[in-house]
Amino acid sequence: MASPPNDPDRIELSDIDWLKGSTLLPRAQDVSAGEGSPREANSSERAASSRTDIPDDKSRNDSRAVQNAQQQPPVVAMAPVQITVPRDPRDRTVNRKLRGIHIFMITISGVLGVGLYVRSGTILRIGGPVAVLLSFFFLGVLAWLVMQCIAEMLCIWPISGALIEFPRTFVDEDLAITVGVAYWFTYSIAFAALIAATAGEADYWYPGKAIDGVVLFFLIPGILILLNAFGVAIYGFTELVGGTIKLLFALFIIIVMIAINLGAGPNKGPRTELLRTGNVFPFDDEVADNWGTAFLMCLAIAAFSFVGVEITAATALEARARPGATMNGHGPASPSVKFTATWTAFIAMMIYFVAGLLMTLNVKWDDPGLPRVSWLGSPVQNSSSTQGNTNSGFVLSAKESGIPGMADVFTVFLLITALTAANTNLYVASRTLFGLTRELQYGRWYSYITWLSFFGRTNSYKVPVRAMALSCLFLWVPFLYLAPRNTPGTAIATLLEVLSEMGSVSCVIVWVCNVWAYIRFYFCLQKHQVALQAPEDNPTDQRFAHVRRFLYDEDDDRYPWRSHGQPVTMILALAGCLFVLIVANGASLWKGFNKTPFLTAYLAPLFFLTLWLVVKIYRAGGIRHVEWRLTDLSDPHAVKLKIVRLDDIRFRATVDEDEVQPPGWGNLWGLV
User: Which residues span the membrane (predicted)?
Assistant: First the structure.
């Protein structure tokens, strides 16, 4: 029941106005105003947490209506007050146009990149056939475990910057900033790395560096940027087409690989004799002393293939509102979000496993054309071949089968796969940066907050083009590929390898932080399960029914979705991610130290921990003021405030779906 207006314990809406401060602001002072006191940026949350009552839906609506009415200019005739959900300014909002099929195809496009078609050959060369199957299987299971945790929170709060907000709410605000930077870096550098990968695939035809530089590194990125700038509706359509094509490509390649295994083509390859007579546990003795070490290296390489299964969280901001949702986030979970978040990892794992199995049946593990680890050199092609080099075991299989033109068709498929994945990565990077800077306020011109807030704005079509422009920061990286001395062991080759691998390692770090957030979220709900129930004097109060995971009425269960196998699932997910980061990534150093594998394995974690420490010290106003503790989830009232905050975020940064941009030069797609 709502408290009386003069109740001293009542929390007003102004006490939970989360736009007053941003997580990027230093706690010691208000940067934009140049004054303040320690922790002032979060004073509203601390003040609110000291009260004893949470306003109900009616009182919150009334308070919002009063605030909205006070902000309007005076009018002569008084009209009835219309109660609406307050929204962010128009230049901080996006359109909610993505349907379920768009979200699924965007995620599929991000996962099914060059990881399968290129990295699988490297895995086969290092650890043999069994390593290919087991590495894709175990990493697929790990990705599924991680997404079980993220998907459960995402079904409750499909919000802007979900992968940043969850660690912020349940772990640490400074960690959330670091996670946002790491996630943006993952996809901005992956965008550049995939553009560079197209040149590696195009080398099959020897196009020359002029074609690589002008067409692949300049014109094609420009086209991808233009497609993203048209608006989310057009972008969603392009991803629908691209994702469908990629799935059809994968099916076609699997069918052709089966045909090759059955004897298609004039050349008779090894076929299934590999499993009957060959050694299924071979390993490259130049990189490992035993098969177990080689397998651990393969696990680290396979992790790159599953980067992108969490993209569903990045699309949540622009997904259409789920039917039946209320202001507090009550209502059924979005079927599209739940399906994509929980099944994408499984679908990707099955495609990788089947395709990888067929490749191991058609290509010998020690084929000289298979790609090796970068610091050992490039693959050696058969001198009798009239074709160019390739980094893909699938193209190599088609080439050795002798089927006319099939290797060229496979190479075209790989080029399209890399470009569509690059398109997805640019979208994710721009939305991540937008979500990270959207709440920042303009202040003094020399304040870094003012400069960062520039990227938290959208244009007239609700596209964060400023964030998109900054996400192209690493587009200079592909041009290093054109250097005349770009050979294994050189500084340029090492830089290309390190930057590319840092992205996948950073993504696994983001997985770790969000699984950590889920673990604290899970035990928080378990600890406060009684406090989240409806009060005895108001049994119809359902404000927190959507977070009653443990105590609930089976006839009126409003918890959107419960992930499988908890709490075992979250423990396995955290342990698996840490194992990949610490053990598997370091296995390449066990035979001997090399700077390239060391930098690719540990530069990203070292940078992440350093940035987290720097952010903590800076926002605290000095190392002496740092609070070396995580977010306090022991107070049930403070937990309720955090839940209210996450509920409100859903409705702040979206515009009405029926808003249409009129045709004109300001709307290029409207003219088309």
Answer: 100-118, 130-154, 175-195, 215-235, 247-264, 294-319, 340-361, 409-428, 463-483, 503-523, 568-590, 596-615
pLDDT of 27:
58
Map residue 250 onto helix, strand or coil.
helix
Question: At a CB cut-off of 8 Å and minimum separation 6, what does 316 contact?
Answer: 154, 158, 159, 160, 162, 337
Cα separation, 409 vs 414, in Å, equals: 9
How much is the pLDDT for 195?
87
Which string of DSSP letters, residue by residue, matches 275-337?
A: HHHS-SS---TTT-SSHHHHHHHHHHHHHGGGTTTTHHHHHGGGBPPPTT--TTS-SPPPHHH
Give one word for 366, left, alpha or beta, with left for phi > 0 and alpha for psi -120 to 50: alpha
Q: Is the peptide bond preceding residue 567 cis, with omega within 30 degrees of 0?
A: yes
Cα R_g (the chain), whole angstroms: 26
Closest CA to 615 of 187, 160, 25: 25
Strand partners, 14: none
Distance CA 173, CA 182 (A): 14
Q: Is the dihedral of CA 217, 244, 406, 378 positive or negative?
A: positive
Q: How far is CA 131 from CA 124, 272, 421, 538, in A?
A: 7, 17, 25, 59
∠ Cα 635 640 642 (to 5°): 95
- pLDDT value at position 491? 57
User: In terms of Cα–Cα distance, which of 250, 223, 242 is closest to 110?
Assistant: 242
Q: Residue 543 in 3-state DSSP?
A: coil
What 3-state DSSP class applies to 550?
A: coil
pLDDT < 50: residue spans in the chain = 1-22, 28-52, 57, 60-61, 63-85, 326-330, 377-387, 653-661, 663-672
Residue in the block written with tokens 């009129």: 662
Output the six-digit token pair for 257: 């690989």
pLDDT recorded at residue 371: 81
Do 374 and 497 meet the contact criterion of CB atoms below 8 Å apart? Answer: yes
List, in sequence order, the alpha helices (H) in 528-659: 568-579, 595-620, 636-652
The whole-angstrom separation of Cα 40 and Cα 396 is 61
pLDDT of residue 501: 80
DSSP label at residue 625: G
Residue 141: the pLDDT is 95
For residue 35, which phi and psi values (nearest 5 degrees)? Answer: -150, 170
30 closest CA partner among 442, 451, 438, 434: 442
Helices (H), 54-118: 57-71, 100-111, 114
- Here the contacts of 366-369 (C-beta below 8 Å, separation 24 or greater) are 366/125, 366/282, 367/125, 367/396, 369/396, 369/399
Task: Round to whole Å and give the CA distance between 519 and 170.
Answer: 9
In order of 96, 504, 510, the CA distances from 568 in angstroms are: 35, 25, 20
Q: How far apart are CA 604 and CA 595, in angstroms?
A: 14
Q: Check residue 95 and give its pLDDT.
A: 72
Please, what is the Cα angle at 427 between 424 and 429, to 5 degrees? 110
Burial class (CB in 10 A: 0-12, 13-18, 19+), 503: buried
Residues 6+ apart with CB under 8 A from 384: none
Cα 358 to Cα 67, 351, 401, 410: the distances in Å are: 64, 11, 13, 15
pLDDT value at position 334?
A: 63
